[in-house]
Design goal:
With about 150 residues, the protein is an alpha+beta fold. It has one domain: 3-Layer(aba) Sandwich (Glutaredoxin), CATH 3.40.30.10. It has a seven-stranded mixed sheet. The chain has a two-stranded antiparallel sheet with strand order 6-7. A hairpin with a 2-residue loop joins strand 6 and strand 7. The radius of gyration is 14 Å and the shape is globular. The two termini are about 20 Å apart.
């Protein structure tokens, strides 16, 4: 996993409208980059809504929120519309960005082993350095937790 103090790996991913979004687009702003397993699942919905509920306050602190999963742009669009999510959701369908951040890992569920995204968040400063990592995030109230640190 990317460590505090290291340069955030660059990425170029599509948003839910098909537009390309690059990390470099946000130079000069703080970035809250959160990785989540799947759209429209209970934990991921709680986490996204917790960010939605503090979105304006996070913006007021000079930060942007970017969610990343391996779901398609179309899936993200439905997820955003269903829950009125005002921030970026990016499609990492080949899981390269998740791999670069160290959050693509082996997981176990009901005795089965598979690879997937480990729910994690990174706060990136205005110069592109990771200043805080949150491995294995608990989704409820995560937005408030991040807001308090900004």
């Amino acid at each position: 996993m990317v460590q505090n103090g290291s340069k955030a790996p660059a990425f170029s991913l599509k948003d839910d409208q098909g537009n390309t979004v690059n990390l470099s687009d946000f130079k000069g702003k703080k970035v809250v980059l959160y990785f989540y397993p799947r759209d429209n699942t209970p934990g991921c919905t709680k986490e996204a809504c917790s960010f939605r509920d503090v979105y304006d306050e996070i913006l007021a602190k000079g930060a942007v929120i970017i969610g990343v999963s391996t779901d398609s742009a179309g899936s993200h669009r439905k997820f955003r519309e269903r829950y009125d999510l005002p921030f970026y959701l990016l499609a990492d369908e080949d899981h390269k960005t998740a791999w670069d951040y160290g959050v693509w890992a082996e997981k176990k569920l009901y005795g089965k082993t598979y690879f997937g995204i480990v729910r994690s968040t990174f706060i990136i400063d205005e110069t592109g350095l990771v200043v805080k990592t949150f491995p294995k995030v608990k989704p409820e109230n995560h937005g408030k937790e991040i807001l308090e640190l900004l």
